[in-house]
Amino acid sequence: MNVHLGDFGLAKSMTGNHDSMTSNSNMWFAGSYVTSLQATDKSDIYSLGMVLLKLVTGRKGTFGEKMDMVRWVESRIEMQGPEREELVDRPLKPLLPQEENVAFQVHEIGLRCTRSAPAERLSSRQACDLLMRVLKDRELNAEKKSLD
C-alpha cells in the first residue's frame, strides 16, 4: 500500500525542503496557496475538496493545461450517460442507486469546497456536517433496506 495523503507540516519538518515537498502536489492546493505559500482555512478546505473529488473519480488532479479536476467534474456532473459515469472510479462500480447518490453527493461537497472564490467555499465545519449527513442518510437507507 502506498500513502497518497499525508501531513505536509510533518513532511516539511522531516525534509527541511518546502519546494521539493510541494513540486508535484500543486494540483491539490488552492491557487492562493501556490502563489503566497500562506495556508488558510479556505486553502485547506480547497485541498479537502480535491481529495473528495479524487476519492470518487480515482483520477489525478489535472487533465492537460486547460482542464483541472474541478472543471472536469463540473463539466460532467449535470450530464447523463457515459460522461457522467466517468465521474465514478471503475473499481467502485457497479453501484446500487443509493450508492450512486452518495458518490454524487460527495462530488457536490467537493465542488463546494473548491469554488474559485475563497469566500464562497464551505467552512471545515460545514463540510464535516455535510459529509456526516451523507453518512447518516446512507446508514438510514441501509437500515430501511434490511427491514424490507
Explain this structure.
There is one protein chain. With 148 residues, the protein is mainly alpha-helical. Helices cover 60% and strands 0% of the residues. The chain has eight helices and no strands. It has helices spanning 8-15, 18-22, 31-36, 41-57, 69-76, 82-85, 97-113, 124-147. It is flat. The model is unreliable at 10-26 (pLDDT under 50).
Task: Provide a concise account of the structure shown.
This protein is mainly α and 148 residues long. It contains 8 helices and no strands.
| pLDDT averaged residue by residue | 78
**Radius of gyration of CA atoms, rounded to a whole number:** 17 Å
Shape: flat
**Largest sheet features:** none
Q: What series of H and E elements makes up the topology?
A: HHHHHHHH
Q: How are the secondary structure elements laid out?
A:
Layout: H1 8-15, H2 18-22, H3 31-36, H4 41-57, H5 69-76, H6 82-85, H7 97-113, H8 124-147
Helix pairs in contact: 4-7, 7-8
Structural features:
148 residues, mainly alpha, 60% helix, flat
